[in-house]
Design a protein that fits this description.
With about 120 residues, the chain is α+β, with helices and mostly antiparallel strands. About 45% of the residues lie in helices and about 25% in strands. It has a four-stranded mixed β-sheet with strand order 3-2-1-4, sandwiched between helices. Strand 2 and strand 3 form a beta hairpin. It is globular, with a radius of gyration of 14 Å.
Length: about 120
């Protein structure tokens, strides 16, 4: 495993430990060069439970063109906020999975806030 990936996973583990202490639902983000994924994960006694999810692989987003840019991340952020509200989740902790809060990750978070999620 490369040092870059090892460092990102270390940062992710540290951040998730802090979120686990809060016992809050979390908005977990994962990005690749081509796509971005988001999940709302609720903590439960038996393990974590995925409440809502959205990604650039959804048919409503994928057909619009490029899926690896900031506008696609904004679309995913708005979609995850809408699906979270439909599931009854209003407040989440932002789990950036060790990625820098910059670019597509920041765009997704800002769009989710604009969509009504309290982060």
């Amino acid at each position: 495993m490369s040092d870059k990936k090892r460092s990102r996973l270390r940062r992710a583990r540290r951040g998730r430990a802090r979120i686990r202490e809060q016992e809050a639902s979390r908005l977990c983000v994962f990005r690749t060069s081509k796509h971005i994924y988001a999940q709302i994960i609720a903590p439960t006694a038996g393990g974590d439970n995925v409440v809502a999810s959205a990604s650039t692989l959804d048919s409503s987003i994928r057909g619009k063109g490029n899926t690896g840019n900031m506008s696609a991340a904004e679309t995913v952020g708005a979609l995850i906020a809408e699906r979270a509200r439909n599931a009854g989740v209003n407040k989440v902790a932002f789990d950036r999975s060790g990625f820098k809060y910059h670019g597509r990750v920041k765009a997704l978070a800002d769009a989710a806030r604009a969509g009504g999620l309290e982060i």
